[in-house]
Amino acid sequence: MPRREKQGTVVSNKMDKTCVVAVVERRAHPRYKKIQVQTTKFKAHDPQNITQPGDIVRIIESRPISKEKCWTLKEVLKHVEEV
Which of 20, 23, 51, 63 is the most exposed, fewest CB within 10 Å of its CB? Predict the structure, then answer.
């Protein structure tokens, strides 16, 4: 069974070896067909602490690492510009 992948934006990196990734999904309402935007936050394992808030990343499903963390950072697609 293939592992699920998601792409999102890093919202927080204040925990050690963990980043919070916000994934935005657009879905049509089943009855009214209006497009709805839904944002879900996932905690992802970041072993080298390389992410910064604002980075665009790809995460992949993994075994449970802690109570809420069952995703792992696969790659950083775009780093945010530091000012």
Answer: 63
Strand partners, 41: 22
Count CB-CB contacts under 10 A for residue 66: 10
- Find out whether 33 and 21 touch, Cβ atoms under 8 Å: no
Q: pLDDT band for position 2 (50/70/90)? A: confident
Rounded Cα distance between 36 and 33, Å, is: 9
Vertex 70: Cα angle to 69 and 75 (nearest 5): 100
Express each pLDDT in 23-65 by its tens digit.
Answer: 999 999 999 999 999 999 999 999 999 999 999 999 999 999 9
Structure tokens at 74: 């696969």
